[in-house]
Amino acid sequence: MRRFIIVFGLMLATVGWCRAQVCGCTDPLASNYNAKAIINDGKCKYASAIIKATVIGELDTLVKGTSSLIYWNKNYWTYNDHKDKCLYRIDSISAAISETLCLKGIKNQDTEEIAQDSLYLYFGDIGNNSGERKDLQILRIRKDSIQNKVYKVDTIRFSYEDQTDFTARLNANDFDCEAFVVTKDSIYLFTKQWVSRKTTIYSLPKTPGTYIAHRCGTYNVKGLITGVIYLPEYQLIVLCGYDYDKKNLLSALHPFIVLLYDFKDDDFLSGNKRRLDFGLGVKAQIEAIATSNGLDYYLTCEHFTTTKMGITFDFPARLYRLDLRKYILPYLNRMKKKQ
User: Fold this and answer.
1) Do residues 97 and 88 touch, judged by C-beta distance below 8 A?
2) What are the pLDDT digits (tens) for 105-159?
3) Which one of 25, 104, 117, 186 is CB 3.0 to 4.6 Å from 44, fit for a cystine?
4) At a CB cut-off of 8 Å and minimum separation 6, what does 317 contact?
5) Per-residue DSSP letters for 124-184?
6) How much of the chain exceeds pLDDT 90, in percent?
7) Are 114 and 123 in contact (CB under 8 A)?
8) Taking all residues of the chain, what is their mean pLDDT, rounded to a whole number?
9) d(Cα 240, Cα 176) in Å, to the nearest integer?
10) What CATH number has the domain spanning 48-338?
11) Contact at 8 Å (CB) between 299 and 276?
């Protein structure tokens, strides 16, 4: 009841604020752009768009299980999803491995994402394809300890507040997760929902301990979310993923990204939401995304192979580059003027 009263109060406050200020779609790229609007109401509508990514090259077999990508210490680093405990520096020009940094004192059952703040790297051992795990955890490692090879590791354990059924359902549950971001005081998870094809955002503290991850909101991405990058200075989140069809997997594996931007504080779904699709001919199990400047994005896809009707289909692990200037540069320029 108290939550309802608070939410209702905020709704009334928003209505009053909009009457005083003029709310509407503030993005010139949207079909319902309102030039008079000062306050973004989060209801911008966009035409469908096809984006083209450049293939930098195939990845070394050592990182064929790439599941995370992070820009740290002026370089791009990737990490495999199972068992391996090494970070691999990837050359953004050739896709070759240029350095290997193996870690000690950590566990990697199914690490699917790495995020960071100024002091720590956060390794998300959160993969849950069957929806049965009760040992979900994020390992927090001090950056300076990695560089000094001392490896100071803390553990953040959690469970979802609304999961009561832990029956194993391989690729048929809504409690898998491969993406999260770190803010000033919290971690926000973006689930990979095999059944609904949506993503739900959950929050928990970013300090060591055992927590219940609280549900914040759900967005229909119409696919599987596998990676995310957060640029807090621009109130911008970029998610990556791929379409999925259990009955006809080869007609799926179609990559896409979702832009969330111009939102309020940590309410990531309160702003603009736009999906951008790769060309229909592109097939890749996209797993991770990172950027150094907010305009040029690098994505990795892991090796995928399957045999259907006696025919083997094989998609190698690759590094892609994606230029998003056309879609977000006007917004970034507006944000810079405000700062």
Assistant:
1) yes
2) 898 999 999 999 999 999 999 999 999 999 999 999 999 999 899 999 999 999 9
3) 25
4) 58, 59, 61, 63, 64, 65, 66, 300, 301, 302, 303
5) EE---TTS--S--EEEEEEHHHHHTT---EEEEEEEETT-------TT--S-EEEEEEE-S
6) 84
7) yes
8) 93
9) 15
10) 2.115.10
11) no
Handedness of CA 263, 218, 122, 73 (dihedral sign): negative
Hey, where are the domains in the chain?
A: 1-45, 48-338
Encoding tokens for residue 118?
């100024």
Show Cβ contacts of residue 248 under 8 Å, excluding neighbours closer than 6 positions: none
110 residue type, one letter? D
Rounded to whole angstroms, the Cα distance separating 216 from 189 reads 10
Mind listing the pLDDT tens digit for each residue in 299-329?
999 999 988 778 888 899 999 999 999 999 9
The mean per-residue pLDDT over the stretch 211-216 comes to 98
249-268 per-position pLDDT tens digit: 666 899 999 999 999 999 99
Residue closest to 271 by CA, chosen among 256, 259, 253, 279: 259
Annotate 71-131 with DSSP letters as a single string.
Answer: EETTEEEEEESSS--EEEEE-TTT--EEEEEE-SS---SS--EEEE-SSEEEEEE---TTS
Give CA angle at 295 (202, 179), nearest 5°: 20
Can you read off the two tokens belonging to residue 273?
Answer: 């939401």
Q: Closest Cα to residue 300, out of 6, 80, 126, 107?
A: 80
Query: Hey, what are 98's tokens?
Result: 């240029």
* Amino acid of residue 119: L
CA 35 to chain centre: 31
**Using one digit for the tens of pLDDT, what is the confidence trace for 277-304?**
999 889 999 999 999 999 999 999 999 9
How far apart are alpha carbons 34 and 44 in whole angstroms? 9
Contacts of 225 by beta carbon, 8 Å cutoff, 6+ apart: 178, 179, 190, 191, 192, 199, 239, 240, 241, 258
Residues contacting 52, CB < 8 A, separation 6+: 278, 279
Tokens 């990514």 belong to 53
- What does the pLDDT average to over 188-202? 98
